[in-house]
Automatic annotation (TrEMBL):
Chain coiled-coil ranges: none
Location of the protein in the cell: Cytoplasm
Keyword tags: Cytoplasm, Elongation factor, GTP-binding, Hydrolase, Magnesium, Metal-binding, Nucleotide-binding, Protein biosynthesis
Name of this protein: Elongation factor 1-alpha
InterPro entries xref list: EFTu-like_2, G_TR_CS, GTP-eEF1A_C, P-loop_NTPase, T_Tr_GTP-bd_dom, TRAFAC_GTPase_members, Transl_B-barrel_sf, Transl_elong_EF1A/Init_IF2_C
Gene Ontology MF terms: GTP binding; GTPase activity; magnesium ion binding; translation elongation factor activity
Domain Tr-type G residue range list: 6-230
Binding site for Mg(2+): 22
EC class: hydrolase
Length: 437
């Protein structure tokens, strides 16, 4: 962990396959000094040995993160963390990661900001931003999931002779796409870069004298620091529960909102079990209090191990987390081979919870851009459709509305190993009361 006192931002790198996410971010990390020259030279050798040539060395940096992740190896922290002059960044998902979408919704942590990499190479631009392109899909998801800050890296400028005309052309079409998805493009930087050659990543270079805007690193610095939801009521989704001899029940999880102190009276939902926080720890250090963003383990007196499990949420006894038997949600169908109909029961992933859930009713199909209804009671939904639906988890689920608790009120619907849809909770239409079973 860095001793840096800079504010911290979680960032995701998005974009269509082969637009150069790995190359761009790998090179950015090298230029920022997050990876040393010796490591990169070793990658260059490996890269050449495979016949891919020296240009692939930067992508290799990212690919080795992926490999290590896939093999479950602890990764050198340097590869996931980097600093600009203003911020300390955690790269929360390496490019190309299979489960990027699920992770973005429910994963290790939420993204505060995104880098969208779009190639300016004719053909690649269109593939990325036209309907069905991953550039568009990722922009859409980022917006839906509340990742409001985005920087666009218009990559492979070297491939188009560093021409301003091509930059302007691609910028215009990406702007249109982002507007259609709901972004305020006035706040978005479009940085012309070459992930391969390094132009405008950290150093400006001489190839694009016509460009007066920020480099990619400067554009990252232009992000706003995220607001910590400390003032909200306490919500801690439970990751795991341990029973420690002599101590008792020790749940662990991340404080998503609010604060937690010893002697606080808390309630576990859905069970409704009430207990008292005795002590709080993080990385074997005792804490006097924990707040939004902290990963903690805590001793919970008065709650039996049977009354608390992964996927539950802890909150103040006088302000318990909501539990839904049914809720209304806005979803986007990301990918389904055919079409889904009411009654479809995929697995819902929200915060730390996983539960089979039936999409019981399709209320309306909506225009993803404006939210306006385009069809009442649609009979089916297919890839690309946005809709208001009712969802019934097969057992009561602790969850909140996206409006009140964005950290907890979003979810992914998964089936057959892929993410079918992503969504946010609008209303809890049928509540569960543990005292009235
Ligand atoms: N000319 C040129 N080629 C680039 C640049 N950046 C990436 N490439 C090439 O584009 C191809 C894809 O690059 P990657 O970095 O692997 O792309 P990616 O988006 O990470 O791809 P996935 O991880 O497969 O999604 C590779 O052949 C790169 O060498 C660039 O700035 N200029």
């Amino acid at each position: 962990m860095s001793a840096s006192k800079k504010p911290h931002l979680n960032i995701v790198v998005t974009g269509h396959v082969d637009n150069g996410k790995s190359t761009t971010v790998g090179h950015l990390l090298v230029d920022l000094g997050a990876i040393d020259q010796r490591t990169i030279d070793a990658y260059a050798k490996e890269s050449e040995a495979t016949g891919k040539g020296d240009t692939f060395k930067y992508a290799w940096v990212m690919d080795s993160i992926k490999d290590e992740r896939e093999r479950g190896i602890t990764i050198d922290l340097a590869f996931q963390k980097f600093e600009t002059s203003k911020y300390f960044f955690t790269l929360i998902d390496a490019p190309g990661h299979k489960d990027f979408i699920k992770n973005m919704i429910t994963g290790a942590s939420e993204a505060d900001a995104a880098i969208l990499v779009i190639s300016v190479k004719p053909g690649e631009t269109e593939a990325s931003i036209e309907p069905g392109g991953q550039g568009r899909e990722h922009a859409f998801l980022a917006k839906t999931l509340g990742v409001g800050q985005i920087v666009v890296a218009l990559n492979k400028m070297d491939d188009v002779g560093y021409q301003e005309a091509r930059y302007k052309e691609v910028k215009d079409s990406v702007e249109k796409m982002l507007k259609s998805v709901g972004f305020n493009v006035a706040k978005v930087n479009f940085v012309p870069v070459s992930g391969w050659k390094g132009d405008n990543l950290v150093k400006r270079g001489d190839n694009m004298p016509w460009y007066k805007g920020p480099t990619l690193a400067e554009a990252l610095d232009a992000f706003e620091p995220p607001e910590k939801p400390i003032g909200k009521p306490l919500r801690v989704p439970i990751q795991d529960v341990y029973t420690i001899t002599g101590v008792g029940t020790v749940p662990v999880g991340r404080v998503e909102t609010g604060k937690m102190r010893p002697n606080d009276k808390v309630v576990v939902m859905p069970s409704g079990a009430v207990g008292e926080i005795k002590s709080i720890e993080t990385h074997h250090t005792v804490l006097e209090s924990a707040e939004a963003g902290d990963n903690v383990g805590f001793n919970l007196r008065g709650v039996d191990k049977k009354q608390i499990k992964r996927g539950d949420i802890i909150g103040p006894a006088d302000n318990p987390p909501a539990v839904a038997k049914e809720f209304e949600a806005r979803i986007i169908v990301i990918s389904h081979p055919t079409a889904i109909a009411p009654g479809y029961t995929p697995v819902l992933h929200a915060h730390t919870a996983q539960v089979a859930a039936t999409i019981s009713h399709f209320v309306s199909k909506i225009d993803p851009r404006t939210g306006a209804t385009t069809e009442e009671n649609p009979k089916f939904l297919k890839t690309g459709d946005a809709a208001i639906v009712k969802i019934k988890p097969v057992r009561p689920l602790a969850i909140e509305t996206f409006k009140d608790f964005p950290e907890i009120g979003r979810f992914a619907l998964r089936d057959m190993g892929t993410t079918i849809a992503a969504g946010v909770v609008l209303n809890i239409t049928e509540k569960y009361d543990p005292n009235k079973k």
